[in-house]
Write a structure and sequence with these properties.
The protein is built from 3 helices and no strands. It has about 45 residues and is an all-alpha fold. The radius of gyration is 12 Å and the shape is elongated.
């Protein structure tokens, strides 16, 4: 696993814990802008 892979694993962990907190508050869906998921997808496809 290269540096980028390690970095994205960290990001996934952080994001997962944030999503958990948001889900508990019930604001999960409104908290994720469309822009963010598009950016994530373009990064992965590289």
């Amino acid at each position: 696993v290269g540096a980028l892979g390690q970095e994205s694993m960290e990001m996934l962990k952080v994001r997962a814990s944030l999503e958990e907190k948001l889900k508990q508050k019930g604001i999960y869906k409104s908290a994720i802008p469309e822009k963010a998921s598009k950016a994530k997808n373009s990064r992965l496809s590289r």
